[in-house]
Design the sequence.
């Protein structure tokens, strides 16, 4: 008998990978829950639900058919916080409360530096981090929660850390950033995160645990950018100076962001606009925070994807996507 | 953290596990290896973030022959980042042959083979921001790269080896923030080490005397001390510390300061390439990682052995800038811009001879007759050098007439008579200044003379070109600007025999258990390669050695109990920085 796993945020980057992995497994069957209607045919073997993940009664109904739930909800800070609150409330009302794997983020640690274990204080101050902290606090009220705090999740279908970075590398807006890229890039390949989620559901004794997730010997951001650029063929890699980064993040980013919002409101495509590079990224790329993943290594028995392999997969997907868009 | 000795209490004590003197390429590279290690590191820097004339003046000294060596306060910087604040960025590893004992190179042979440095070279390359540790065109470029001269194959010279260029990286600016934010590393600015104090038995360093130009006196205590102050200052510190060992530290056999080497460099001849201009590529190619790389004509090791010559490389170069007969508007523009070019570059590029008004106008005429070329060059230098983060490394002028000169860079032999010593004059801190007596030997002249002769013969034999030069002028050309500035090598040479060396294979001063040297001062021979990359690699190797020592001592202390009050086992406990 397979475990029925309700995947919230199944349309998203991580959720879609998880659904695919569970569907291919012999021990689980996913129930994919998204907020977008999906043009599907009768051939889709995956059970799909469509509802607002902040709707507690809808969640309650969906959980009736599931043995476990994974919260991959992304979106606005409010969606993240409200979604976790509703999910915990709905799960707690079940006759047999299911195990809940909640995807948090390393953002909860804020701007701390050095080696950071799961016991470190949660000091994230921006709206996203605050929402993640609030969501974790809600999970704390649920006795069957498992919290994962991944670092920088990359791989095929990652819009933020793969596709966007690839675009910037190809445009030579990113490259070797010198001292501005010396921060630790706590990469985790998406397949490794999916495996970690599966292990949380699969292995005994995981309930109540919190895990940092990142490859054990993470590169610096410079190493990630240079390595990815070379794999993509975005060579020679550009050296980007501090002056130019400031220009990008302080001077160009605000008007580009405004233009993007205006385009969206006017129903126009903002695809032709260069994507704004927010100042928060400049801070992140310099932040020398390193996730301590000792617990994940020991308890989840993970085998991490080598950086070169991950970059190859990511670059292949980028190239296929570019070909598809061009055609 | 970064502190200023001027703000510390007078007569205070600084404590650490490892104390490094000098925050240049070697000192900063070493300190970075201790980040997050739990080992307390003290990095003492004489200067500050910017050049300060009073501090720089501490480097002043005398030279025996001003025609042969630049003043000691030139080509080196006494400030955070050290001389990397002005370096050109050329990176090249030493060749395997450089480590060998060669019977035709007196006093040659390192205590280890190149393999001992190989684990450290890739990281050194990264710290220097020179990309991959890949120094042949075949391994660097997917298509093998453009040949230097199409069809030129020689049994004597290889054009496959590369030199790579750093940004050039100012180590202070590049890595200062990492040191500033490290909890276990204390950088102390304005901290001039004036003496190394030994324990009475003379086998260990007890402390360093530290003074500021503002009059503060401090002492630095540590379990291990590293001198990373550059090839000249290391010798000065060892020679000036005579309270227990009368002749200076590590100098029982009068070796400190001797065997002083630079490189033999110069520009010679008129090379006419007998091919189309498109068949010659003497400039740079950019690797995937974005690094400027350039081919050289390197005398093959088997040719060095067979001909009994030192290591030697040559590059195709533009004609002499000072002579307006080249009719190049670009070179003449450079000549006219001489006042804007830093001394360290202008001297060798443009010479220091006084030009007549007539010559000046001839250069102006060249510029006026080729304005477009000159404007394009000026724009290229502005965009790709002045404003670029990764700077175009040097002046490359392609000759439409296929006329070049030969720019050579050769190994200088170790020679005990070539030396630096203490002068009677003192600096503002009462420390004896340096006196430099750099000398070269007939063997050095022979290496350059015969290597150029071989090169000319090879061009001729392969039918690719004709090198016209006057063999009798080789010695004059190789000494036209004296010793190659900034490469200060051999003054505390490495070896197993204290009679002819100062430090052992771990860069530890003979007879002193806790004093090490991280510098080109330790190179027993000079190679053809610029020293910075190897200095960094050696420093990484020394840092790994020290980490092992500190851990072993900590483990021994844990087993044997806390250190004894007499401090013999571990006299200086790890302590909090000031």
Sequence:
């Amino acid at each position: 008998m397979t475990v029925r796993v309700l995947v919230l945020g199944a349309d998203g980057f991580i959720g879609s990978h998880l659904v695919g992995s569970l569907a291919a497994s012999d021990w689980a069957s996913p129930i994919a829950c998204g907020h977008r209607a999906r043009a599907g045919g009768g051939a889709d073997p995956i059970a799909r639900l469509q509802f607002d993940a902040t709707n507690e009664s809808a969640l309650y109904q969906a959980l009736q058919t599931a043995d476990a739930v994974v919260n991959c909800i992304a979106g606005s800070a409010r969606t993240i916080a409200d979604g976790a609150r509703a999910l915990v409330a709905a799960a707690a009302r079940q006759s047999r409360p299911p195990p809940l794997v909640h995807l948090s983020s390393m953002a909860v640690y804020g701007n701390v530096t050095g080696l950071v274990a799961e016991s470190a204080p949660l000091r994230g101050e921006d709206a996203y981090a605050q929402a993640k902290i609030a969501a974790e606090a809600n999970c704390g009220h649920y006795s069957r929660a498992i919290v994962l705090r991944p670092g920088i999740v990359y791989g095929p279908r990652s819009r933020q850390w793969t596709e966007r970075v690839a675009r910037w590398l190809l445009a030579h807006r990113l490259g070797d950033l010198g001292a501005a890229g010396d921060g630790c890039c706590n990469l985790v390949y998406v397949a490794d995160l999916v495996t970690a989620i599966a292990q949380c559901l699969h292995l005994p004794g995981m309930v109540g645990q919190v895990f940092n997730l990142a490859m054990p010997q993470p590169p610096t951001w410079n190493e990630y950018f240079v390595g990815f650029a070379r794999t993509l063929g975005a060579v020679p890699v550009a050296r980007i100076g501090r002056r130019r980064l400031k220009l990008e993040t302080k001077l160009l980013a605000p008007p580009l962001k405004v233009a993007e919002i205006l385009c969206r409101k006017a129903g126009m495509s903002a695809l032709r606009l260069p994507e704004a590079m927010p100042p928060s990224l400049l801070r992140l790329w310099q932040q020398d925070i390193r996730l301590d993943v000792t617990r994940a290594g020991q308890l989840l028995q993970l085998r991490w994807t080598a950086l070169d392999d991950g970059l190859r997969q990511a670059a292949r997907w980028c190239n296929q996507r570019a070909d598809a868009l061009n055609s | 953290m970064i502190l200023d000795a001027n703000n510390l209490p007078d007569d205070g004590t600084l404590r650490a596990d490892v104390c490094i003197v000098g925050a240049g390429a070697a000192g900063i590279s070493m300190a970075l290896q201790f980040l997050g290690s739990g080992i307390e590191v003290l990095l003492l820097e004489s200067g500050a973030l910017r050049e300060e004339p009073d501090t720089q003046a501490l480097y002043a000294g005398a030279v025996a022959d001003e025609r042969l060596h630049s003043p000691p306060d030139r080509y080196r910087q006494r400030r955070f980042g050290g001389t990397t604040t002005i370096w050109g960025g050329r990176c090249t590893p030493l060749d395997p042959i450089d480590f060998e004992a060669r019977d035709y190179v007196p006093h040659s042979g390192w205590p280890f083979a190149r393999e001992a440095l190989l684990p450290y070279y890739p990281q050194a390359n990264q710290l220097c921001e020179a990309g991959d540790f890949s120094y042949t065109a075949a391994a660097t470029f997917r298509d093998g790269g453009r040949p230097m001269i199409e069809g030129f194959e020689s049994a004597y010279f290889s054009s496959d080896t590369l030199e790579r260029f750093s940004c050039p990286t100012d180590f202070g600016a590049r890595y200062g923030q990492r040191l500033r934010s490290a909890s276990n590393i204390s950088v102390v600015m304005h901290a001039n080490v004036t003496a190394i104090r030994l324990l009475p038995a003379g086998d260990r360093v007890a402390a360093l005397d530290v003074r500021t130009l503002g009059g503060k006196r401090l002492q630095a205590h540590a379990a291990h001390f590293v001198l990373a102050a550059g090839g000249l200052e290391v010798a000065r510190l060892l020679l000036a510390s005579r309270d227990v060992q009368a002749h200076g530290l590590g100098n029982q056999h009068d070796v400190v300061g001797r065997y002083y080497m630079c490189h033999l460099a110069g520009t010679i001849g008129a090379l006419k390439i007998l091919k189309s201009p498109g068949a010659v590529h003497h400039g740079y190619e950019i690797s995937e990682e974005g690094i400027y790389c350039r081919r050289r004509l390197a005398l093959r090791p088997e040719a060095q052995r067979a001909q009994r010559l030192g290591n030697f490389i040559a590059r195709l170069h533009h004609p002499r800038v000072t002579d307006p007969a080249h009719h190049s508007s670009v070179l003449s523009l450079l000549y006219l811009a001489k006042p804007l070019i830093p001394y360290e570059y202008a001297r060798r590029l443009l010479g220091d001879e006084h030009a007549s008004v007539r010559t000046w106008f001839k250069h102006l005429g060249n510029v006026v007759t080729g304005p477009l070329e000159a404007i394009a060059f000026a724009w290229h230098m502005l965009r790709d050098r002045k404003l670029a983060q990764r700077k175009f490394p040097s002046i490359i002028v392609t000759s439409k007439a296929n006329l070049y000169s030969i720019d050579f860079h050769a190994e200088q032999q170790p020679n005990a008579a070539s030396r630096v010593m203490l002068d009677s004059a003192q600096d503002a801190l009462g420390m004896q200044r340096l006196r430099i007596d750099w000398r070269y030997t007939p063997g050095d002249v022979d290496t350059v003379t015969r290597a150029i002769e071989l090169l000319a013969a090879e061009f001729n034999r392969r039918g690719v070109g004709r090198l016209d030069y006057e063999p009798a002028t080789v010695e004059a050309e190789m000494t036209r600007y004296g010793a190659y500035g900034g490469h200060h090598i051999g003054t505390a040479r490495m070896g197993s025999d204290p009679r002819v060396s100062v430090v052992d294979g771990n860069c530890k001063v003979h007879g002193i258990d806790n004093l090490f040297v991280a510098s080109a001062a330790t190179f027993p021979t000079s190679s053809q390669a610029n020293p910075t990359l190897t200095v960094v690699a050696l420093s990484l190797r020394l840092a790994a050695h020290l980490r092992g020592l500190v851990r072993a001592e900590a483990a021994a202390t844990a087993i044997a109990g806390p250190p004894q009050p007499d401090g013999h086992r571990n006299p200086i406990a790890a302590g909090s920085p000031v």
Remarks:
- Chain A has a mean pLDDT of 92.
- The two ends of chain A are 44 Å apart (CA to CA).
- The first strand of chain A starts at residue 3 and ends at 8.
